[in-house]
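assembly run, all chains below
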Amino acid sequence: MENYIIEMLNITKEFPGITANDDITLCLRKGEIHALLGENGAGKSTLMSVLFGLYQAEKGEIRKNGMVVKINNPNDANDLGIGMVHQHFKLIDIFTVLENIILGVEPNKMGFLQKKEAREKVIKLSKQYGLEVNPDALIEKISVGMQQRVEILKMLYRENDILIFDEPTAVLTPQEIDELMEIMREFAREGKSILFITHKLNEIMAVADRCTVLRKGKLMGDVAIKDTTKEELSKMMVGRDVNFKVHKKTKELGDVVLSVKNIKVSSKIHSNNAVKNVSFDVRAGEILCLAGIDGNGQTEFVSALTGLEKTSSGIITLCGRDITKATIRTRSISGMSHIPEDRHKYGLVLDYSLEENLVLQRYWRPEFQHFGFIKSNAVRSYAEKLIKQYDVRSGQGPITPMRSMSGGNQQKAILAREIDKEHELLIAVQPTRGLDIGAIEYIHKQLVARRDAGKAVLLISLELEEVMNLSDRILVMYEGEIVGELDAKTTTVQELGLYMSGAKRSTAKENENAG
Amino acid sequence: MQVNIKKAGKSKGFSAFTAALLAVLLGLVFGYIIMTIASPANSFLGFQKLLMGGFKRIGDVFYYATPILMTGLAVGFAFKMGLFNIGASGQYTMGMFFALYVGFMWKLPDSVHWLVCVLAGMIGGMFWGLIPGIFKALLNVNEVITSIMFNYIGMYLVDMLIQGNATMYISSKTRTSYLPASAQMPSLGITNSSVNISIFIAITAALILFVVLNKTTFGYELKATGFNKYASAYAGMNGKRNIILTMAIAGAMAGLGGAFAILAPSTIAGSSMTYEPVSVIAANGFNGIAVALLGNSSPIGIIFSALFVSHIQRGGTLASLYGYKPEIIDVVIAVIIYFSAFAMLMNAMVGNLIKKLFSKNQSEKILPADPKEEA
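ok done. output:
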């Protein structure tokens, strides 16, 4: 029998209505990088939360070094040497790096903090693993990549030797991802064991030794990476063959649909402008992608473009009409459709039914109301038409409460609503965030179909693969500015990464030539 | 039982109704405990009177239900849009003053006099709701603060205006004079009860609001804004206009309540309801908050919760026959009403508790799944 450091045997975890983990066994060897692969909702996070003591499993047991252990809360997990970097960092913004690292295990004498020895230990650890951070910097002032280092240091400071990384690469640039991979390999060489949760196959192929695949709460298998391929893994994960490439026909460019000139948007967080002098055109029949790492002004720019926030200067023209100061309704009527970044906050009224959400942009039109009274029959038949046409799946059809629908189908509902509305410009902000591969495939196809139908598509995305696959042209946004324009056919992920991290930028002259 | 609960979970209206019933039950239990503490010997008989007494005075139950039904609508309707209208008292007092003014100062044909008084009351309340609405919409001033302050401004203003008007005010009796009979609302003719046609107007108003909320584009916008103001802005709804309109309608409801209260016919011939300008904020306004909470802000629910609250209040006055001081009775009523209302707020918690009690085979801990992670 092999020596496993952690064995999770026959774990079953139920939530009201669903079985998140159904008889799952996962065994982690000492010194290996073990990937946990699955689509959203496959049960990866639940399984890790059971290991980390956030949830208790109904059935099954956890063993460490062959001994059965009971993990009731994260402190128990910590005592067993299990540490976790969460997908959404658990840091206190207004504390320093050092304060965050020692949080919960503060060294003290009679209640007085002893920061000095803690500082020495942190500095030693960060030197040892090449995780350079300034211990006195405030979390809110450092980059997301740095914040992740702090999370990793937190685990090291607690002398954990079983490290769980929950989707750690989602917020990083390609270069930062490479660095993280190297750090993970270093940990493994030292004998630490790593559980690496992800749905990105390339990263698994690059770094992992073994991979456990989950689908819909069930265990699909446990394979050694050297014996498998990307295609095989994705088939295990999704249950069918997946097309990674989006097929696009070449398309003649039409007229300029959207033109923005010298847009500035002030920031709510700091005194500088969040968006500085952004200018570009989008033409009919193209997908223009605004790429960049999260937090470089994309959100503020889209808010200003769609009318949710005010611009401080600049001109926005849609189909030849100045809409800089127009209301949201006017923009919508002028031909702007908007798939918002945060579908729960902006895109949907979760307490409304599916049909009520499907008419959110057009309930006021004559076909849906008569002297202010809503024609419920018209709404119902319109909703049924969209549900059929866009294959929106739900428990009770048009009257399904939005809140009860899955993320993929919620997004499909938004997509159906925004595409079916008359539009010339479709603004899609992170349209596939948090969706499974099947839904991503579908949404990508629909976006390309819009382009082929001669509409202008402005895509704002953080996913490099999505950017590379879908766009005709790429603009990179860094610290509120457009720092480069790239042709999607000729550029590489590495080049894109350099622009995204601010390491490279086109000169103004180059920009002019490109534009 | 388990089957019933499962079914209840499926129908939204029904589960809200069962939750309200449970809340009321909890409120009654606590009320009973207070009565037992106050006077153990009489608590059973007293509590029985409190519960059943209202049925013997059914006319009064409807009569006292009318103003709180209206203030309940004022709070509940605004709450549907996510606005917390604490100012129902001020709007109620304003409505009452406008109705009184027209009742005393305008000479109109008998047949329409009371109707004009009612309309005047509606306009008064609407005006007093409109102002916090405008502040909220145009200057983003929190409506809770402005409407609380407008309770005081309204109350002192009305007291001052009444005391300064010799036709309306009898200073020796520190109350308003008797209204002319033409300004009083037609009675329903139940002996020893002031119940009048205003209860029908109030129920009609609730039904109209129900239709507005559920069948019109305005109601659609209003609820969308209440559920998610970001999504309603995203959909291009005119938030400012809707806030002002909602507050004006809410104010109009409270104003009607004030008019109904003061224009009710007296059971003694030749007299009328009177108002005493003694610098007290109208309690009916605050009771409206409890009524709205208990009715889950739904106009139909508010009809029933207003009747319930009025019923308990009537029973309470009878319970004093068993030696309970009026103050104790007030405390008990307050405990019942507010406990019920707060229990409604904790709707979900109560629901979970029930689930736990009736499904022993499930796990001991019911942890909510993070919708983003697990959906």
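The CA atoms of residues 121 and 157 of chain A lie 7 Å apart.

Residues 4-238 of chain A form a domain with the Rossmann fold fold (CATH 3.40.50.300).

not gonna interpret more than that til we talk
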